[in-house]
Design goal:
Layout (H helix, E strand, L loop, with lengths): L2 H11 L1 E5 L5 E5 L18 E4 L2 H12 L1
Antiparallel strand pairs: 1-2, 2-3
Length: about 70
């Protein structure tokens, strides 16, 4: 998946993404953002996926949530 495909996939699946302080990327369903607490440890959160790159995080989310 290239960058263009990644953004298209995010749009089509209704995903949000944000970079973390350590350089990882967090990806989840946009509807989940209302339940998202910024101070929580999201590495154990079953509603999001975290990976070193945005594309890896999107691919991981697709693999585990579709």
């Amino acid at each position: 998946m290239d960058e263009k495909e990644a953004f298209e996939t995010m749009r089509n699946l209704g995903l949000f993404a944000c970079p973390l302080n350590n350089g990882d990327w967090l990806v989840g369903r946009a509807s989940y953002i209302y339940s998202f607490f910024i101070t929580d440890d999201h590495y154990q959160d079953e509603h999001v996926e975290i990976a070193p790159t945005l594309i890896e995080a999107i691919e991981k989310w697709i693999e585990n949530h579709t």
